[in-house]
Amino acid sequence: MNLLRSAFFLALAAASCLPASAESAKQRGAALFVNNGCQHCHTIRKAGGVKGPDLSGVGRTLNKTQIRTQVLQGGHEMPSFADILKTAEVDDLVAYLHSCRDKRK
């Protein structure tokens, strides 16, 4: 039940990073974030894990190429997802993460 509650709140947090006129790529990317377990290590808007960095403002600090490189190559204790995600899925995930632009505290 607790896992279900966490997934629900993470999905809400993920959706809140999207502007009202969000493209479907960003929506698919938000779903990929949840469905691939990214929330187990990463937080977005206070929902998710704490092993990896908070990604609430990743779109303000990294450009799309930098986000793509991190997803594909991993590093800093993050595994590579190059053999797990398809190119279109990486594109969608990058679009979503780049749309997360909360100001850093």
UniProtKB/TrEMBL annotation:
Keywords assigned: Electron transport, Heme, Iron, Metal-binding, Signal, Transport
UniProt cross-references to PROSITE patterns, sorted A to Z: CYTC (PS51007), PROKAR_LIPOPROTEIN (PS51257)
InterPro entries linked: Cyt_c-like_dom, Cyt_c-like_dom_sf, Cytochrome_c550/c551-like
Keyword Iron: yes
Residues in the signal sequence: 1-22
GO MF assignments: electron transfer activity; heme binding; metal ion binding
Stretches assigned to the Cytochrome c domain: 24-101
Coiled coil spans: none
Highest taxon above the source species: Bacteria
Keyword Cell division tagged: no
Record protein name field: Mono/diheme cytochrome c family protein
Organism encoding this protein: Tunturiibacter empetritectus
